[in-house]
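QA checklist item 7 of 12: single-chain prediction sanity check.
[x] sequence parsed
[x] length recorded as 379
[x] structure emitted
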Amino acid sequence: MNPTLQVVLAAAATFFLVSLILASMIVICKGGSKRRRNARSVLPTRTRTRNPGPPKPNTAHSLSIGESATFDPILNHVSMQELIDVTRNFSPDLIIGDGSFGLVYKARLNSGPIVAVKKLSPDAFQGLREFRAEMETLGKIQNPNIVKILGYCATGRDRVLIYEFVEKGSLDQWLYDTSCSSDESPDDVEFRPPLSWSTRMKIITGVAKGLAFMHNLETPIIHRDIKASNILLDDDFEAHIADFGLARRIEGAHSHVSTQVAGTMGYMPPEYLHGATMATVVGDVYSFGVLTLEILAGRRPSFPFSGDDGREVRLVEWVGRMVGQNRYLEMVDASISKDGLDGRIVEEIFRLGLKCADEKWKVRPTMNEVVEELDRILA
């Protein structure tokens, strides 16, 4: 055979063999790729079924997975969807309060009871386990001077608490807001009469008993935000401490280390303002003392006013000056009739409030001691 022809045939055969091998490899690769694509196309469906993904902003009902619990036998099972329905998707028209970490709405559940529904801000609790543990603890509290948590719902980052509804609203409203609108008609305005001296004594005593109960639990609870707007009044003007958004359960030596400054200006103890990171029961005692002086004098602790010398002064400082001059009756809220007031009782209650609001935390009494002192004074 011609040598040239042999070279050509050998080259052609080699080219054919190489092409065949390459073609086979391409077919194999395409088949594997197709199988991997098919496998991926099935996987997301299973993942979406198990995990609905992050919720859409401000859309509680976009989630299908969550949990709820009730702590009171008068309530049936309550779902997040029911709370959305009965609050008309948390309508501003139904807001009855603005507590720490969330707004409070008035609503009637499908089973009949009227309740207060609090929708917490997303940063109120870091995780569902922390939230659940805190709610289980607070749900067990049974005390006539503490607002009862009836249950909760949680879906995604949404946390909603269900409280008992306390009829007459907050102490803050009764001290400063002289009118309220009826539920039936916004034009039907009712006027709140000033709180009498005896009613104020009842409220102060109720708050003291509620705090004493919390502070003396096996694992004490610090409220950390005692103020007039967190005291609710029922039909008999019995005081109920509300809003545990800033409460902290504490272990050991009645203290809890926290880097978060909690509370409200005017009621906050000076040690918190000076950078202390230790929340203690005596912090609540200070806030109670300020609240007591506020109830007696009818003056907001956070608002400065003109003293006798024309200079601006705040409530606690003003009371301290007036006590030093034995001017007790002059401090009593001007809306209260002074006729029949026992000067001795007025003096002792002011002194007790001032002692609780002492700048030196070691001087402040315990809430058990406060309750005993109130019982003695008002006996």
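[x] summary fact logged: The domain at 60-164 is CATH 3.30.200.20 (Phosphorylase Kinase; domain 1).
[ ] second reviewer sign-off
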